[in-house]
Every structure is written in structure tokens, then in C-alpha cells.
Design goal:
There is one protein chain. This protein is an alpha/beta fold. The chain has 5 domains: about 110 residues, Response regulator (Rossmann fold), CATH 3.40.50; about 120 residues, HPT domain (Four Helix Bundle (Hemerythrin (Met), subunit A)); about 140 residues, Rossmann fold, CATH 3.40.50.2300; about 110 residues, Response regulator (Rossmann fold, 3-Layer(aba) Sandwich); about 140 residues, Reverse transcriptase/Diguanylate cyclase domain (Alpha-Beta Plaits), CATH 3.30.70. The protein is built from 24 helices and 20 strands. Strands 2-1-3-4-5 form a 5-stranded parallel beta sheet, sandwiched between helices. Strands 7-6-8-9-10 form a 5-stranded parallel beta sheet, with helices on both faces. It has a 5-stranded parallel beta sheet with strand order 12-11-13-14-15. Helix 4 links the parallel strand 4 and strand 5.
Length: about 675
């Protein structure tokens, strides 16, 4: 008999979206819409897991769980709610009511289903008998998930094996995810311990049910992880080969295709979360790190849960000394400090020392304070805190604070171009502002679209009245401030944004104008040349589209389209061809499709309710249309080609991030193959 999950939720849309995914994981789903109905169904169905909503028609979900625990029911519970997001509730649920995991709506359906299947798998076999042989010291922390089948004569070995077989690919996927986290954060003890526990559980369970190849591969992984704990070194090639073996054998045993790319052939890499916080391109080697100085274990557990789906390296520490040691070794992107700590003076001791460390002077500090009064806020500001978060902490405010911190860490300093004024350029550079000095107007015009300065300062030797107009015209759709000194011959020209008074505070005014234009450029949502959504709007629209598709049980596809063949062209011609293709993309898809500009050379399209196979035909028609136009206008469009990479939900992932990464990987393959290639699987 399949394991049973009781879904206690009055939201019909939520039930309709998660039930098929749970059944696909080999779980039987029974539904209750009221707490009173659920109590009766527990006695009738004996479910392996309860999924409880926070607000029910007849009772509060938390109150219902409290009554259930008082009556002696110890069934594992998953709590799901769109409202209860504060730390006291999280602590009450997980510590006092023994709730296994807390999910916040809306959930990612496939990830939610896999998590529930993993909990059921952990409960699938009975606990080992009381009298067991003591384990060696190294294994004392490891719990054997599945005991020897002969230790419990009441268990039917054949039925137990069949039940475990349906959950075996899930266990393999969970172990794969744990190994990926170890690969990205090998120095974190908790991550290695979690992977070690999963490898140990899989080895024991697979051996119990006769899957010897999987047990052997998991055993090799376990040995490698123990070696990592002891020496800090690991043979990653051997590790990747072992995890590939686990996945292949697990898929074969369950009769499922193994579509996951080989880790041995392409080791996993950490994709920065900042691109999904900021919705704009970032350096590939940037990984946001949040250093957490907090001595409350419940708060650490809450932060891990709240940031579960956000790829940020969380480094929790409980003492000032440990925080400074970690920050000195590797400067964090931001710091979150819980206050008060046990030591009331810890914050005032920590901040000056932290700011003095290399690379930490500009790192934003987020303060999480129990007290929210003007005196506390003033003291925090005086100590140098950048962002203030009061208790009770809310998930939305936490995410916003973290995105603000990452934005601040990722935002480059304003860039200023100076024409014919070396003395002013020297002062600007000494003040910490990025400065580009040009001695000729022609040189500035060649670089203005490449460097994209936020402000241009015309030196006093610039005499041509037409120079400001020429610069404005040459910059296409770029936004910038055009400045000069008050004694400049061009000070009265209408294209000048502001005249700076050379004798008083002109650096402050220049920095302010450059910073203002930089913010305006980042906030621009549409490309003025093509009408397409730029990256912030495009990512937000993709996330909304995917969420809607998941709620209504539809497929969703993402396509990345890149202009190719523009290498060697001058900047103006290349830009004109990109704009041409952007307008073509804007006009060739349905109104309900997401159409956006990803970067200079790449466009993104989101297709709601269309599988990758259907989208392939749409993309091929666009390529065919482009080829026809190239034939008709060979002189203008000869160099314009378009490569396409496609990915679709649920085949290639269940999050916007996973779909974009899959589409990006296929786009790179397409670009390597041919200027007009299309890759979709």
C-alpha cells in the first residue's frame, strides 16, 4: 500500500496544484478541508504525514496541531501558511510542537512534493529494536534509517522493498543536492555533516533492500566525506563518479530515465543568488555570503528556513571572535547581527574591528533588534549599522533587507568621464570616484557607448559651443549628466545639466549627479530602442508566469535568443543590428508571452502553457523569418544571426533560476554549433 499523506487545507487551488505532484512521488493523498474532519480521517487512514494549513474554516492550524499533540498523536507534520512568518511562531512550531518543516505559500510545487516524499521515506521503515550493538565513536552521530529486515518479523520484506523502490530516486536526488552544497561550501561543518548523514542512510537502506550497487557507491561517498572531515581534502573526481553511479543505478532500479547531466563530466558550480536578487548581470565569480552573528539557535534555524530557496552562503557564528576570524579570512557580502547578544557590549566591540578588516569597510551591516524605539535606532546608526530590522522579523522585510545589502555590495561606484581637465580628473580619482580622462572629443565619442559613464565633466579648455550637443547625440539612449564648471565657455549651453562652482564643494555635487544617474539607469524597465522589458522587469514577469503555470497545472517554457556574427563590426553597426532583432522579437510573439532584453546580445521570452516542443516550432519560424529578411536585405542584415536555447517546466526544473540556467547552457551549446543553431534538449 502506498504511503498516505493527509492534506488539511481549504484552498482548492493549492490542493489541485500539489496533489498530482505528490502522487507522482508515489504518495497517496487524502484531503480534509476542516480540522474536525481531519481528526476523524487520522483514525481511519493512519497517514504517514500530515500537511496542515495555517488558517482553516473552523480552527487555527496551529491550535489544531497543539490539540493533536496534547492527545498523544506523534505523526510527522508539515506546516504550510501564507501568513505565519515570524520567528516566535517558527520556534513554537518546530521546537514545541515538533513540526518537521515550515513552508510559506506560494510553494514551488515539485520541490514541495520532493520534500514531503523525503519525510515519508524517513518514516517508511520501523525504528531499530532497543537493544543494538554500540557503534564506533565516529558513527555515533549517524542514525541508521532502515534496520535489518529480519529484526522486525512483522515487516513484509517484499512490500518494504517495493515501497522503498518508489522513493529511491528521491533519496539519490537529495544526496546529489547535498554533495553540490558540499562542493560549494566545503568549509561548513553542518553542510558536510548533512551530506554524510544522507550517504550513511542511503548506504544502509540500499543494502537492507538488496540494492548492492547503490549501497557500494553510497559507501564510497561516505568514506570520501569522512576523509574531508578529517583532512579537509577531497578527491572530487572520485566523488562525482560515485554520485553519478548512485543516480544511474537508482534510476535503473526504479525504471526511470536518468536525465540529469553527469557531475563527473561537468562539476557543479555555484550560481550567485545576486542575479536573482538584483535581476541584472553580475560577475560569474561573485557568490553572496551572509555572516550571521547570533547566539540564539532558534534564530539560526529560522534564517535557514527563511532563506532556503535563496542561494546565499549563510555563515552563522555565536561569538565576536569567531565572526572576526571568518570575516578576516573571507570578507562577507553582508553581516546580520542579532542584538542583544549575551554580551551587551558585543556589538560596539564588533563593528569597529569588523570595519578595519580588509574588504569589510563597505560591507553592509544588518541589525536584528528586539527593541524598536528611537533610542535604539539612534544608537545603532551611531555605531555604523546600515539596515535596521525589528522583531518580530517578517520574511518579506528580511528578503528586502538582504536584497538591499547585496545591491549595495554589487553596485559599482559612479563613473565619471572628464574631457580635457587633468587636474579635475586627478581630484576626482583621489576622492574615490572612478574617473576616465579623455584629451580629445573624438576619443570620448568612440568610448562613450562602451564605457557608459554616469556623468561627463567638460573641462574649461572645451570651447566649441556645439560640443555638448554632439555628445548628447552620440550617446544614443544612454542616460548621463553633462556637467561643466561655472567659468567654462559652454556653461550657458542648454544641454548642460549643471554648472559646478569650482571654489566650493564641486566634488560633492558631481558625485551626487553621477550617483543619481546611475540609480535612474538601474531603475529603467524598458529598452528605449526595442520596447522590450529590460532584465528587472523580464525576470519578475518570468517568475509571475511560472508561478501561474504551476498553480494551474500548465507547462512553461523559457527561451534565450542571442545575436551572433557581430564580432568585428563597429559599435554603431552592431548596435543597430541588435536593435533590429530586438524589435523583431517584440513583434513576433503573443501578447501574453514575456518578451525581454537580457543583456546587450541576448533576449528572453517566456511561453505560458507551451511545451518546449511547441516553442521549438515558434523559434524556428522566427529564425526562418530572419533568414528571409537576410536574403531580401543582404547588405543591411548579412551579419545578423540568432542562436536559441530553450528549457521548459517541469522537465528542466521547477524554478525560474533552474529554467534560465538550463536555457543558458543550451544557448552556449547552440552558439558553439552554428550562428543559427537551436538547442532545446
Amino acid at each position: 500500500m502506498l504511503p498516505t499523506v493527509l492534506l488539511l487545507d481549504d484552498d482548492a487551488q493549492f490542493r489541485a496544484s500539489v496533489t498530482p505532484a505528490l502522487e507522482a512521488q508515489g504518495l497517496r493523498v487524502v484531503i480534509a478541508t476542516k480540522g474536525s474532519i481531519a481528526r476523524a480521517m487520522i483514525l481511519e487512514e493512519s497517514p504517514s504525514l500530515l500537511v496542515v494549513d495555517g488558517l482553516l474554516p473552523d480552527i487555527n492550524g496551529i491550535t489544531w496541531i497543539e490539540e493533536l499533540r496534547r492527545d498523544g498523536f506523534d505523526t510527522p507534520i508539515i506546516f504550510v501558511s501564507a501568513f505565519y512568518r515570524d520567528l516566535p511562531t517558527f520556534r513554537h512550531l518546530t521546537q514545541e510542537l515538533d513540526v518537521t518543516k515550515v513552508f510559506h505559500k506560494p510553494v514551488t510545487v515539485d520541490r514541495f512534493a520532493r520534500a514531503l516524499a523525503g519525510v515519508v521515506a524517513a518514516q517508511a521503515s520501523p525504528a531499530p529494536p532497543a537493544a543494538v550493538t554500540p557503534q564506533p565513536a565516529d558513527d555515533s552521530a549517524d542514525e541508521i534509517l532502515f534496520p535489518d529486515e529480519f529484526s522486525e518479523p512483522r515487516v513484509d520484506p517484499g512490500r518494504a522493498k517495493a515501497s522503498y523502490l518508489s522513493l529511491l530516486p528521491i533519496a539519490a536526488d537529495n544526496l546529489t543536492g547535498a554533495i553540490r552544497r558540499v562542493h560549494s561550501e566545503a568549509e561548513r561543518t553542518s553542510v558536510v555533516s548533512d551530506a554524510l548523514r544522507q550517504a550513511h542512510d542511503l548506504r544502509s537502506a540500499a543494502q537492507t533492500h538488496g540494492f548492492n550497487e547503490i549501497s557500494d557507491a553510497a559507501g564510497r561517498i561516505e568514506l570520501e566525506l569522512r576523509q574531508l572531515q578529517k583532512s579537509g581534502r577531497l578527491d572530487w573526481k572520485s566523488m562525482f563518479e560515485s554520485i553519478d553511479s548512485v543516480r544511474v543505478y537508482a534510476s535503473a532500479a526504479a525504471g526511470r530515465p536518468n536525465d540529469t547531466p553527469s557531475m563527473a563530466a561537468a562539476p557543479p558550480s555555484v550560481t550567485p543568488a545576486a542575479s536573482f536578487f538584483l535581476h541584472r548581470p553580475i560577475p560569474k565569480d561573485f557568490v553572496p555570503t551572509l555572516l550571521v552573528l547570533e547566539d540564539d539557535p532558534a534564530m539560526i534555524a529560522y534564517l535557514r528556513s527563511a532563506l532556503d530557496e535563496v542561494l546565499v552562503h549563510l555563515r552563522p557564528v555565536s561569538t565576536v571572535e569567531e565572526a572576526l576570524k571568518i570575516a578576516g579570512r573571507n570578507a562577507p557580502t553582508a553581516v546580520l547581527v542579532g542584538w542583544p547578544l549575551q554580551d551587551r557590549e558585543a556589538l560596539s566591540q564588533f563593528l569597529p574591528l569588523f570595519r578595519s578588516l580588509e574588504g569589510c569597510a563597505e560591507a553592509p551591516v544588518i541589525l536584528l533588534s528586539v527593541d524598536d524605539d528611537p533610542h535604539t535606532r539612534a544608537l545603532a546608526a551611531q555605531l555604523g549599522v546600515d539596515i535596521f530590522l525589528p522583531h518580530p522579523i517578517e520574511l518579506v522585510r528580511l528578503h528586502h533587507a538582504l536584497s538591499t545589502a547585496v545591491e549595495r555590495a554589487m553596485t559599482p561606484r559612479p563613473k565619471v568621464a572628464v574631457l580635457r581637465d587633468p587636474d579635475a580628473a586627478r581630484l576626482i580619482d583621489e576622492s574615490g570616484i572612478d574617473c576616465l580622462l579623455f584629451f580629445s572629443l573624438e576619443e570620448l565619442l568612440r568610448e562613450i557607448d562602451v564605457q557608459c559613464p554616469d556623468a561627463i565633466l567638460l573641462g574649461s579648455s572645451v570651447t566649441g559651443k556645439q560640443v555638448p550637443a554632439i555628445i548628447r547625440m552620440s550617446a544614443w539612449d544612454s542616460e548621463f549628466a553633462l556637467l561643466c564648471f561655472d567659468d567654462s565657455p559652454v556653461a550657458d549651453e542648454r544641454e548642460i545639466t549643471e554648472c559646478l562652482i569650482r571654489s566650493s564643494g564641486w566634488l560633492v555635487h558631481l558625485h551626487g549627479e553621477a550617483d543619481r544617474m546611475a540609480r535612474l539607469r538601474r531603475q529603467q524597465l524598458r529598452c528605449s530602442q526595442t520596447g522590450l522589458l529590460t532584465r528587472p522587469g523580464a525576470v519578475a514577469a518570468l517568475e509571475v508566469g511560472l508561478s501561474s503555470a504551476q498553480r494551474h497545472g500548465r507547462t512553461y517554457s523559457i527561451g534565450l535568443l542571442q545575436t551572433t556574427g557581430l564580432d568585428g563590426l563597429d559599435h554603431v553597426q552592431a548596435r543597430r543590428l541588435r536593435t533590429y532583432l530586438g524589435r523583431l522579437v517584440h513583434g513576433r510573439f503573443r501578447r501574453e508571452d514575456v518578451r525581454g532584453r537580457w543583456d546587450d546580445d541576448t533576449f528572453v521570452v517566456g511561453f505560458d502553457g507551451a511545451s518546449a516542443r511547441a516553442v521549438v516550432e515558434v523559434a524556428r519560424r522566427l529564425q526562418s523569418d530572419l533568414e528571409t529578411r537576410r536574403i531580401r536585405q543582404p547588405e543591411e542584415l548579412f551579419f545578423l544571426h540568432m542562436a536559441v536555447g530553450l528549457a521548459s517546466y517541469p522537465l528542466d526544473g521547477d524554478t525560474t533560476r533552474s529554467l534560465i540556467l538550463a536555457a543558458h547552457e543550451r544557448l552556449e551549446t547552440a552558439v558553439e554549433r552554428d550562428p543559427d543553431a537551436l538547442v532545446w534538449r
